[in-house]
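Quick log. Single chain, no ligands specified.
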Amino acid sequence: MAGGAIAAVGPAAMLNQPAASAARARTRRLTMYAERIGDNLIGYGLAPGQATVPGPLLEIYEGDTLEIELVNTTDQRLSIHPHGVNYDTNSDGAPLNGSFNEPGETRVYTWRTQEQYRASGGFYMPGSAGYWHYHDHALGGEHGTGGILRGLYGGLIVRRQGDLLPDRQFTVVFSEMTINNKTAPNTPMFECRHGERVEFVCIGHGSQPHTFHLHAHRWADTRTGMLRGDSDYSNVVDNKNLDPGSSFGFQVLAGEAVGPGAWMYHCHYQAHTDTNGMAGIFLVRNADGSMPPGAQEAIDRFHGHTHAAATTQAPTTGHGGH
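-> predicted structure:
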């Protein structure tokens, strides 16, 4: 990729405008569309014709309620199921509770969140803040395996008041042997500028264990990836397990102490990278948006590497029944 302006960061439903204490516990509403993308993929989108893999990155604050009107434009049964938030059985998104969209059907799913609160015995119940995710739970069977393989997933952030907000956000999904349903050299290249605060939302799917490693950058193994002061001795990592169904997120200052450049991100199961192409590029441009020396050559080398992945798309699956 040549120098010049940075490409757009990818879809996000930016629902995270800071709220004063008196304005908390709001209900926020949006419509999402489940649509076919090409021959093999199905994605979620915020408008007709805008479905992507991963789907939109959704954001709310603790105490908010999110109502999602899901429009199923496909000829297959599907749903949307969240992690990390509260919901009743009607919004579970699982066939077990009869919570799904038939082909062509529109259905509302309601997700609620809570702030941390004091419980008995001096303990506290946790709030909903965290880096979570959502996915289909009904296509191709009772657990949505077919929907996940075909791209029906996305990131969900629940923030706590006072959390640092990023300049850029990227969703990274390791599913089977793909990254966002692609393999190298066609994996996403995430771009930013030197010094920007960049937020990664990392999600695991499929049936394979993975780890997420980011070259030259590290983060605290906390809820946000940040430390809370000079007495916070949380472990600092640059590689973290990303097993199926798990998720985490963190923020880094792009190129801090190392400078701009083409930095690799990848799964650290060696065979997953060597044989299956689970690697990509985190491109930190100069602060003015120009390409740093050597970065284009590094990108060209990456695209010239031999990656033995068999496919860049998930397999097609059949219709799912009750």
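The first strand starts at residue 12 and ends at 13.
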